[in-house]
Amino acid sequence: MTSFHPDQLPFTLLATLILSRQGVPLPVPLEMFVMMILFEVFKEAGMRLPIAIGQTLSVVGGLIIGQAAINAGLAAPATLVIAAISVISTFTLVNQNMAGSVTLLRFIVLTVSTVLGLFGFILSLFFILTYAVNLRTCGVPYLTPLAPPSKDIGKVFIPSTWKQFRTRDRIVRPNDLIAKEREQK
Asked: Is the distance from CB of 122 to CB of 114 less than 8 angstroms?
């Protein structure tokens, strides 16, 4: 946004970003790539350490190096905050294979956004969403029941009662629509 569409940002935010970037020699996209790579290196190092200190070291180490980069004038504080939020949010993913895919997609979106600006960001999100809608796992659409729309979409947004869980979702084409009662012990 700061490179291609600064007019889309509120004036006070734009003024704060410009003042914080004074003296930084790198352009914003290159600075973001460097920050993301540094955080990914710390994240990988944290995965190879014992569980007790691994994630703590990766986050704290990345922030300390980021703070040193800010003090040295190599990075802006806003860039560090955005990169940190982006990398820390991947810790919420349970599946590490998915975390790797999300990291790769993050770099692809950043590259396309660097070249095409806000249009590239929206275009890359459109292609990712299109790919996810067309993806099938075991013959079932990946985004079930959100896309394609089905009668079971209400179970996603509205809290279900236990009676609704007695029937299986139609999209998976079960042999028996009604789930069997569990034996009480």
From this structure: no
- Report DSSP state, residue 171: G
**Which residues, other chains included, contact 155 with Cβ-Cβ below 8 Å and sequence gap of 6+?**
145, 164, 169
Average pLDDT, the chain: 80
Q: What is the mean pLDDT of residues 27-56?
A: 85
Share above pLDDT 70 across residues of the chain, in percent, rounded to a whole number: 76
Tokens at 8, concatenated: 């889309």
Of 181, 147, 183, nearest in space to 166 by CA: 181
pTM of the model: 0.72
Tell me phi and psi for residue 117, to 5 degrees. 75, -145
Own/partner long-range contacts of 101-107 (Cβ < 8 Å, ≥24 apart): 103/40, 106/36, 107/33, 107/36
* Rounded-to-integer distance, Cα 56 and Cα 45, Å: 11
The enclosing H or E element of 152 equals none
SS3 136: strand
124 Cβ contact partners less than 8 Å away, ≥ 6 residues apart? 108, 109, 112, 113
- pLDDT at residue 115, rounded to an integer: 92
Identify which has the larger pLDDT, 181 or 23.
Answer: 23
Contact indicator for 55, 46 with CB cutoff of 8 Å: yes
